[in-house]
């Protein structure tokens, strides 16, 4: 690197939080994609199915807007992915009983069966992937939450 070139504020790539996050995210996404292949699900599809299941178990009426907010996936993408999952027979969408603009979403029996297996696979993968953090996992998660909170 030229001595007078100040393009970067860091001396080494390992000093760039954004670059490191990007690398880790790419690695994690590549591996999670492989883990989800047996279920024929993309990661976005998995996240939405798992979130529907989670919210339903926690007694919430699941709408597309709630799902979008819960997953941080924009509403249009949420709608598109849900349409694909409906075509696959993994969920049902119907008009909301009181809000004509909203749609409620629920898993089909096949959707429940698949997501229960896929969650076990993903949780096992995550446990292995993040094992290197050991007892620092809780702190890592808290730091991720801090970053997410700044954009609310």
Describe what you observe in this structure.
By secondary structure, this protein is mainly alpha-helical. The protein has one domain: Orthogonal Bundle (Arc Repressor Mutant, subunit A), CATH 1.10.10.10. Helix content is 59%, strand content 7%. It contains six helices and two strands; from the N terminus they run H-H-H-H-E-E-H-H. Strand 1 (91-95) and strand 2 form a beta hairpin. Helix 1 crosses helix 5 (109-129), helix 2 (43-57) packs across helix 4 and helix 3 (64-71) crosses helix 4 (75-87). The chain is globular.
Topology (SSEs and partners):
Layout: H1 17-36, H2 43-57, H3 64-71, H4 75-87, E1 91-95, E2 103-107, H5 109-129, H6 137-149
Antiparallel strand pairs: 1-2
Helix pairs in contact: 1-5, 2-4, 2-5, 3-4
Q: Which structural traits does this protein have?
A:
6 helices; Arc Repressor Mutant, subunit A; 152 residues; two-stranded antiparallel sheet; mainly alpha
What kind of assembly state do the chains in view correspond to?
Answer: single chain
Poorly predicted runs? none
Give the N-terminus to C-terminus distance in angstroms. 39 Å
Return the structural class.
Answer: mainly alpha
Which CATH architecture would you pick? Orthogonal Bundle
Helix content: 55-70%
Strand content: 5-15%
Spatial order of strands in the largest sheet: 1-2
The main β sheet shows up as:
2 strands, antiparallel
Q: Name the overall outline.
A: globular
Discrete helix count? 6
CATH class: Mainly Alpha
Query: What number is the mean pLDDT?
Result: 92
Q: Report the radius of gyration as a whole number of Å.
A: 19 Å
Tell me the count of domains: 1
Please report the total strand number as a whole number. 2
CATH topology: Arc Repressor Mutant, subunit A
């Amino acid at each position: 690197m030229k001595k007078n070139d100040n393009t970067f504020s860091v001396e080494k790539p390992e000093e760039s939080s954004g670059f490191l996050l990007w690398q880790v995210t790419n690695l994690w996404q590549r591996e999670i994609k492989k883990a989800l292949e047996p279920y024929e699900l993309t990661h976005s599809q998995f996240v939405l199915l798992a979130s529907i299941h989670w919210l339903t178990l926690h007694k919430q009426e699941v709408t597309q807007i709630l799902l979008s907010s819960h997953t941080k996936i924009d509403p249009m993408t949420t709608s598109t992915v849900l349409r694909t999952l409906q075509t696959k027979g993994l969920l049902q969408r119907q008009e909301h009983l009181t809000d004509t603009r909203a749609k409620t979403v629920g898993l089909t029996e096949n959707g429940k069966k698949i997501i229960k297996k896929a969650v076990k696979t993903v949780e096992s993968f995550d446990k292995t992937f993040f094992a290197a953090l050991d007892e620092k996992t809780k702190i890592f998660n808290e730091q991720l939450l801090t970053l997410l909170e700044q954009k609310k």
